[in-house]
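Hi U.,

Before I forget, here's the chain from the pilot set. I'm dumping it here mostly so it's searchable later in email.
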Amino acid sequence: MPMRNILVVDDDDADQFICEYTIRKYDPSIETTAAFNGREALEILSRKTPDAIILDINMPIMNGFEFLDRYAADFDHHVPVVAMLTSSLLDQDRKRAAEYYFVRNYFEKPLTMEHLDLMRKVLEG
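Structure:
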């Protein structure tokens, strides 16, 4: 499955910009959608299903783990690749993220071409 669209969930404007820039540089045909917290992401996901989600942990209103809990409980179908992109290097965060079968990657910020390659490889099987 090709990577055609990615939902980027991060409250920081600079991180949103870096993600969009890196994705455009990686493949200009990939569409990006921005959400600035988990609640916005859930609203977007109720209308459209991206091929991948890039998710921060520390956000206001609804953080990344609260989003994952709601996403797991409220959605029957899950996006093939959810990648955590965070500044948190805590083992407990990495282990908690791995508890969700649809979280396929855990990356340290900023987003890189190598991260996108790994996400694409998961999608392509």
